[in-house]
Amino acid sequence: MQTNFEQLIVEATQSSVSSETLEQLTLHFQQNLGQSLPAFLTQIYKPLLLLEHKVWHIFSESSNNWCQQSSCLEFFQALAAFNKNLIFQSESITIEEKISLLIPESIDLINTIFERIDKCTDDSNNLITYANYWFKNLSYLVHEYPQLQQIPMIVHINEYFAEHFLLTEKFRFYLSQLCEPKASSIIFTSKQLFYLQTCPLSLNTYFYTDPTVFAFGPEPILKHVANEYLQIIQVQSFLVESWSRELLGCMTHLIGFMRSFLWWARDQGTELNHLLVTENILCDYVRALLHIIEYEPFYKSLKTQWCNDETILFDSILLFLMNIIQTQNIDWFFRSFQQLPTVLLRLADASAYYRIYLCSYGILSEVLSEEYLKELKITDNIKVLFFNLLEQAWNNPVKKFKQIHIGYFLRGFLNLSKNDFIQEGTAKTKRITLFVDMCDQYPIVFDIIWALSFNHDIQQQLREDTPFIHKLTRLSNQATEEQIRKAVDGILWNLQIHQQSHPSPDISSQNAFDIMISYSHKDKPLCKQIYDELTRRNYRVWIDFDQMHGNVMDAMAEAIDRSRSIIICMSEEYRKSNFCRAEAHYAFQQQRHIVPVLMQKHYKPDGWLLFLMGQLLYVNFTKYEFDQAMGMLLKELGANDVHQVDVQPVVSKDAAEVSLPSVPRTTTSITKPLSLDTERHSMLQWAQAEVQEWLTNHHLVQLCRLLSDCDGRSLVHLY
């Protein structure tokens, strides 16, 4: 076979080639696409190398008559399919062999090809069709081997794509055609597909590798394409059922390009909100992307590898949604889609591509409350998946699972680590040692351990690790990075190691502050308003505007000990903050007067924050005008009774389903069974002392403290 193949290649490299030669070569490539490819490649590597380089030259030679042969299309399609299959054969074919076969020899050669495409007056010329195949395969190669982004040839190709194709009026003209609702009926030319598919795909894979340099900054690219891009998404996403194959490819690679481009641009100072400039635009964009992934007919075409439009489309959309969740504060908007869990779980089940099912579970774990995740019975799936992938990435010499760097997993796990089921799973499997091993190499792990250390079993496991405790003690005194030292102090605080002794929680006249405001620094503007109004009314208020330095835990404890009341500023960011959690816990431990206020529109307290605040009443600053909400807060701070009109209870779904316990038989209560209505009527008349006696008789000691100011009317309102 080798001799025959070599002879065919010699014939093919002549200026004139017969249709019979092309047909025989086509047959060879079609017969060796499957498992036999590695063995076939071993036999014919040298002649194949000659042919691959010949093809690039054919694209650059205007006088070559190859493209005029009747059997030429089948030959190029067969060789392109062979090359694509070669790219995704990851085990038995070396990257060096793939590079030698698929990457062209010189930049001058590539420039000539690009110039021919640009100047070609026939938009459906076969040259452009064939070039599309070859440049797309280069993109797949770069995606599978991100290290190739450093090769000068790859850098040049993508900078050329950006300057001479993307940043042109012709590209914008082609985009404007996609803004039309009837774009599915367009008969796309080869040149249109080169601009709208090949060019964005190449830039997508290039920016995905996170290159350190690029000839163009983010601003000119966004300015050139943003408006048309957003319009296309809003029009075409809701017509997904009618997409043609060509339009599917265009939408896939435009979305993929914009996702990876913005991901790269974050390090250049251009954030996501440079494209999605208002919350309404952001929400409309999310709604459009979610509508696309709801379209189930695409599911059957999802592959195990990043090798077709459907797989790339869903991968790009889910990565885009993950980026939005991690950088924009709109978890509430995702929760408003009641079908989201069903769609993502179905998608995760349908896809064998690792990033699709990983992102599906990741989005659910980011936006849904722990209680909801438990209802869906997927907490074990999430726990096992993330632990396994994290361990595989850690044990990999390059610290990656496939193409995902361990740093990405750790950033995702940081948020997951706030959930009880992750803490319990970490404790049960004793995986805390995994994070202890990682912390020297990845400082973010100290924050993860801090979050996990709120679990009592993990606290005990950490206390038993004497070398780690010694390391924490040393870092507490010597660490130069503020965030590391803060996390280390937080861990030691949770382990009750090196805590300073604090005074009795009894309030004395020596306290320096009437109020302490506990908040996340992302909620600073509204907190500043509250602070200004309180100080204007002569309250002595402690608030950390500049973020504390030194031993922040002791500083926090001192501030709480010296304050009569603590305002807890509830928001998604507050719940996610380890420091805020420690602060809230300590305030309750010291039995300070707690006044929760809701800072974030649409947010409902969940997780540990719901557990801690679930029996308290809060002032809703998102429902009322500031002055009205402030009036409610002032009454709450100064009142001896709970003001049922001015505040709203934080009640979990479970709490709402619990029936009111029967009234205890004491000297101050009714001594015979009552109906629920009668019982409520009786409770309305109770004074504070009767409420306390009722709680004590029912062994609700914690609630005695939490409801110390409640009379019967407030108790019924809370229920």
TrEMBL record:
Designated name of the protein: TIR domain-containing protein
SUPFAM superfamilies: Toll/Interleukin receptor TIR domain
GO biological process: signal transduction
Origin: domain of life: Eukaryota
PROSITE patterns linked: TIR
Organism listed in the record: Adineta ricciae (Rotifer)
Occurrences of domain TIR (ranges): 511-659
